[in-house]
Amino acid sequence: MQKDEKFCQRSGMSMKSKGKRTQAGQGDCLASMLGTGIQSLCELELYPIPHPVDVQWSVSDLSAKLKTVEIKGNFGEYHKCSQELALQAEVEKVLDFIPSLLTEVHHRHLNSQAKKSGV
Fold first, then answer.
1. Which pLDDT does position 19 carry in this prediction?
2. Which intervals of the chain are annotated as region Disordered (predicted)?
3. Alpha carbon of 59 to those of 16, 62, 93, 109: distances in Å?
4. Strand, coil or helix: what is 8?
5. Contact at 8 Å (CB) between 34 and 15?
6. What was the pLDDT predicted at 114?
7. In the chain, where are the structural domains located?
8. What contacts 24+ positions apart, CB below 8 Å, involve 35-38?
9. Interatomic CA distance for residues 104 and 44, integer angstroms
């Protein structure tokens, strides 16, 4: 078993320090975001990073998985932090740049075939 897999299988993966606060909780928050992010990726089978040939998901499936990744900070009285919305926005940005596989030529051909077949 690889080191990364052992890490993912550990139970109680909280990296929050108990009761200690750094300036605005930043250190605790970063540790918490790392812990929740990795744990969430493990649950979705996205960490450790799979070999490309082993991935059987469509782009749509992969993006849906990535949109559910939890990256939560240390929620406290003075500091609240989460990167889930930022990750979702980045996934959407990447998806927006994927060109359509059907060009205008394809559409014209499909329409002409539909007319010929009576569809």
1. 43
2. 1-23
3. 34, 5, 14, 26
4. helix
5. yes
6. 96
7. 3-117
8. 36/70, 36/71, 36/72, 37/69, 37/70, 37/71, 37/83, 38/7, 38/8, 38/13
9. 37
Tokens 């744990």 appear where? 39
The helix (run of H) or strand (run of E) holding residue 94 is helix 84-96
- The H-or-E segment that residue 6 falls in is helix 3-9
Q: Answer yes or no: are the C-beta atoms of 57 and 32 closer than 8 Å.
A: no
pTM attached to this predicted model: 0.63
Which pLDDT score, from 0 to 100, does residue 3 have?
Answer: 54
- The pLDDT of residue 12 is 36
In this predicted structure, what is the pLDDT of residue 45? 95
pLDDT along the chain (119 residues), means of 10: 51 38 65 93 96 94 95 70 88 93 93 93
Calculate the alpha carbon distances from 77 to 51, 101, 103, 112 in Å. 41, 49, 53, 64
Structure tokens at 48: 């450790």
- Show the 3-state SS of 26-50: HHHHHHHHHHHHHHHHHHCCCCCCC
